[in-house]
Amino acid sequence: MEAFVSSVFSIAFTEIGDKTQLLALFLATRFSQKNAIVAGMFVATLLNHLFSAVIGVGLAQTVSPDALKWAVSLSFIAVGAWLLLPGRQNDLDCRWLKYGAFGATTILFFIAEIGDKTQVATMLMAAKYQEMFWVITGSVIGLLLANVPVVYLGETLIKRLPAQTVRIGACVLFCALGVFTLLGSGIALK
């Protein structure tokens, strides 16, 4: 259950102010079918994070526990530092919009998540906990918790969220996970 809770909160905090939130806002302004946008986010995130978790668990099973402990610890800290960098707003290729709310969202979210902080975080969580089901479930729920309100509440919510404060909080969370993993506290690698 620790894998689930850590994944939900880590991914939700990581996602706030991220490019995929901007993508959710963009799609919500282009399509009136909000449920189709949410369904597309779900499918894209599930597929992307499933792939990430498989890689994370595979690494955990092939790398020595000490090397994995160091790699995961330093990676958590690196993701924490990465969160302090302002997001780059990528130009969206509008040719995908012709596939409708569900199709465009699925394609664009999947592409946007490749190499994203949440994909890397999911891989790290899977390597740390080696509980794919709970990590994937938690990471998908975390991403949806951060993005679904943007789809339905749009610009009003974005204007009221202190994105920089949330980004700093997520940085602290990931750095703490890295330090605790390295020091072997209760949330360390098994």
Automatic annotation (TrEMBL):
Q: Where in the cell is it found?
A: Membrane
Per the record, GO CC terms? membrane
Q: Where is this protein chiefly located?
A: membrane
Q: Per UniProt, which keywords does this protein have? A: Membrane, Transmembrane, Transmembrane helix
Which residue ranges run through the membrane? 36-61, 67-84, 96-112, 132-154, 166-189
What single Pfam family name could you report for this chain, choosing any that match? Answer: GDT1
Top-rank taxon of the source lineage equals: Bacteria
Task: List the InterPro entries.
Answer: GDT1-like
On whether Nucleotide-binding is a keyword of this UniProt record, the answer is no
Topology in membrane: Multi-pass membrane protein
**An example molecular function term from Gene Ontology annotations:** metal ion transmembrane transporter activity
- What family does the Swiss-Prot or TrEMBL record give for this protein? Belongs to the GDT1 family.
- Which protein is depicted? GDT1 family protein
Q: Which organism is it from?
A: Neisseria zoodegmatis
